[in-house]
Amino acid sequence: MNNHIELLAPGGDIDSIKAAILAGTNAVYCGLDRFNARNRAANISFDDLNGILHLAHKNNCQVFLTLNIIVVDSEIPALFNLLNKLINTNIDGVIIQDLGLFYILSNYFKGLKIHASTQLTTHNEGQIRFLNRLNATRVNLSRELNIREIKALTVVAHQNNILTEVFVHGSNCISFSGICYMSSVHGGNSGNRGRCSQPCRDQYETTMKGKDFPLNLKDNSAFLDLRELADAGVDSLKIEGRIKKFHYVYTVVDAWRKQLDGFYNRDVVSADNSALYKVFNRHFSNTFLKGDINKDMFIDNPRDNSAIRLSELDGCSTDESLEKAKGDIYDQRTEIITKVENEIKQLSISKAPITISISGKSGTPLSLSVKTPDTSFEVFSNTNLADVGTEALNYEMIFKRFKVLNDGEYFIEQLNLEKLHPNLYLPFNELTAIKRKLWLFLNGSKEFVDPTKIPVLKKQNLVSTKPTLSVLISAPNDLYHYHETVATIYFLLPNCFKNESSEYIDLFKKNEKVIPWFPSVLIGEDFHAAVDLLLGLCPKTIVTDNTGIAFEAYKNGIPWIAGPALNIVNSFSLLCLKENYNCSGAFISNEISKIQLKGIKKPDNFKLYYSIYHPIVLMTSRQCLFHQVTGCTKNKIDDFCIPSCAKSAYITNLKNETFHIEKSKGNYHRIYNETNYLNTEIIADFPDFFSGFLLDLRCINAKNNIELDKPKIIQLFEAFLNGNTESEKELLTLIHPITNAQYSKGI
Fold this sequence. Notes:
With about 750 residues, the chain is of the alpha/beta class. Helix content is about 30%, strand content about 20%.
């Protein structure tokens, strides 16, 4: 059997980190008060981090720091300031999403190990190769994958010296993580910024199926599937829950620790998961992992199900039995809380004290005797002390030069100069050398890294030509609308077309001016079919929302444009795409505001694009969204559902906001905003900046998407780009209702 699988626990605050360590976790992931995707967690301060590292490492536990949000340009100075401090800690890895941060770490902070966040939605082998080129050492795979898909990707990851992480316990997102904008559009709380307000968990008007919480999934639990995960070669099992309390973390980690120990010591996988029901849960499901995506994954109750389950186990379902169960669960949790609380009080995250005793006389080396709680050592200067020099050695002067030691896992408790003769001198560079020696001894032979200056990106050249207009379609029948237009035509391929590849190849060959656009999610055989189409066509250019296809295009010398689902919001992301993958251009995310957009500097010979009009995709889901809404004759998704099913429905929340659910042939289920996005302001706000603007004229059957005169709309936009202001007024009359709120609010 391979090396033991790592158990990775959440640490939303200091007590949860301590609880995870007590319960026997191998690693913990936690976030600071900035740049992490769980802003609702208490998180930790940087001052606490080194103490946490000292405690964790003393207990054979690694610590990974979450910096897993997308970052706008105005935040880059603060980010560099943090990284300059972080590089001199013993952090075991950083978890990131932003492509610009990948670039920054790979080029300026090579001492930090990079873990690819779940927000990157990694689900095909091309994406793993894409991340390998960015020096990722570990990737968290999408929660929607089944065990066969996980095993196949783990093989590819290991071939590329990348470890794989799989979520095994905690909340299930109804959407593919990283490409959900529901919270962002409705409330301005971007999930890609750690502010998800979970509108999917909200109560809605009762659906035709009598459900009040139609998007609410049971929690994920792979507790009974440990053997299969081990056989798949997975390297790390990740528990979700950075907004959960310490007793939850302890209970779940303790249960998993015992499960892992039983597996490795006795080759036994326990079927007793009762401990997991003693803390918050929405009941459990492992059907994503099993590849059995069915209606039983849903639960029309967002609350804690512990008492309900206990009542059912007792064979009763009366109100009286439920109240008794609630009391029993409360007593059990109180017992857990008291026990764990008493134990975590014994653990300290204080930095370890060091005592430095300095001695020496003229003509001899300066001698430093250092004591820590665990060891002692001596350090000597390479140059002898002298009677003349620039500044005589004294307490203030030495402490000033050595105080950087306090930025590590230790702090200077005593600095003793009693045995140092007065009025002696030592060159400043010699004191710096001593400081570095001390740092090496105290930090496991890790050298001190001087601060990296923020690279100055030059202002981009203005676009010398008028921006072009492009149109996105997804139905072959729509092609006849656009034979006469000068606009560029993009054709969005479906998520699944493995049985229709030849038809799409024929479509592009017969319409050579039409450019393929690859979707954000391409799993397994669907990814292989997309690669076959790409290589079979060898088009002049493509647009892709999937980094796996981006990597294949780069590898085969096919020009490509990064689509909006890649969440590009900063200048370093553009450098990352161009320098690593020879990308020719990118769509800037519609999540950012006018002010945030102004900070972006594009590389030379690189084009920027913006989607000026589109239906707003709030989320894409591998689950069937009709089970809880209108019902479905099938209890689960089978091999025919994705390629063949086509239907739509609506749900309305208690704020009277309506959402359109659509399943088109070949695509996963999607939820669309009731109001489309239209931003005509950007053309005047950013002259000579964008190379092109996109109109998404796909046939989405949302309520507000009336039968549009598409050629007329294209004609009006072309006139508007040519400076005809009257055409803007006509557009706003023709297309309604619309929103561009994110252009004002940003992220």
